[in-house]
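Two entries, shown back to back:
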Amino acid sequence: MEEEYIELKREGDRIEVLELMKSQYPFYVNPEFLSLKIYQTKDCVFLEKIYKSKPSEVINEPLNSISDFFDPNDSLEKNAIDFVFELGEYTIMMTFEDVFTEEVAQEIINNAHSEEEE
């Protein structure tokens, strides 16, 4: 089986994941984002959010709280790929309330509840 090549847009010590998120989750991602980046320090991996309405305001959310899924000892590339392709829409929606639109978040919740009832 041939591995798919994923091109990551690295900007210094950060990787821009907004376009990857849009390709992985078409119509899900909040259109208010100007940028979504992954970066890490020696102790923590972060999601950096910048909104179109406030381009000078940078919001950083630690990713380490997600059951040690993100390890700052791993490469930045691995953590970025894991965020986009391994985390899953339900976990993204529950952990980061505004990454997806409100309508999509409600749809994800409804689908999860209907699967539980089956």
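entry 2 starts here
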Amino acid sequence: MAVAIPKSLVSLAHNVVIWIQHWHTTPASPLQHYGPVRMVRDVFQISGFLLIDTLGRIRQIILNQEAPLALVLLIPLRALVAPSHVAIQLAQTSLPRR
């Protein structure tokens, strides 16, 4: 049985995608021509970790260095979270293949 997603949640998700597009896409950005579907598929699927302190605050974001768009997002994300004093870095986030 399918569960209906409240319209306000769909609207929120759509607005977040549009905000990210406007926030990150500059004429020089590789994401300039990404639409909402491609943003969700390619950008929002980057794996990584959040390091949280004892008070529940995010202190560090680690993005998978092997994700094709991780490097593209590194500097803009650092600028976005700088006021919150959150560190962002690239690192290996998956186990080595055998």
